[in-house]
């Protein structure tokens, strides 16, 4: 019989060593990424952060392609819709806003993927998934990389770094270093 690695964590619980900063707050060397650092790891992380979405929208607006992220967000919201009547209303709103040939904020999806208006009568949570995936990939492989090089992103990153290096942010680190260097 060999080791069953699935049993290992239960048999040998992880040992955690917690170092505090002098005020009893845990000090971790494995701090979770936040803000621009997290946004830069993936488009998914960017879209999970309301501030990231706000900055990305600002960027896309300048590129005249804000409708892409708005469509993606509308589809995410649509998936959570309960009840056939509400789903029909939201589906029609998404169709009229982003997919119809007369749409006010038409997204650029492959022609054969366009939905026919008749599908709006029997909506389901994933009815826009194929189109949403197209738009996600368009953003991921096109505008996202430009966003990471944009002034909007770089200026936000710079202001975050300035906040982190501010005297207030450094006081906890200084207290911790005083404790361990005595």
Automatic annotation (TrEMBL):
The keyword Cytoplasm is annotated on this UniProt entry: no
GO molecular function terms attached to this record: G-protein alpha-subunit binding; GTPase activator activity
Alphabetical UniProt keywords: GTPase activation
UniProt-annotated stretches for the region Disordered: 158-182
Coiled coil start-end: none
InterPro entries from the UniProt entry: RGS (IPR016137), RGS10/12/14-like (IPR046995), RGS10_RGS (IPR037879), RGS_sf (IPR036305), RGS_subdom1/3 (IPR024066), RGS_subdomain_2 (IPR044926)
GO CC field: cytoplasm; nucleus; plasma membrane
Pfam families, per database record: RGS
Gene Ontology biological process terms, A to Z: regulation of G protein-coupled receptor signaling pathway
Family matches, as SUPFAM superfamilies: Regulator of G-protein signaling, RGS
Residues covered by the RGS domain: 42-153
Gene3D superfamilies membership: 1.10.196.10, Regulator of G-protein Signalling 4, domain 2
Entry protein name: RGS10 protein
Organism: Caloenas nicobarica
Gene: Rgs10
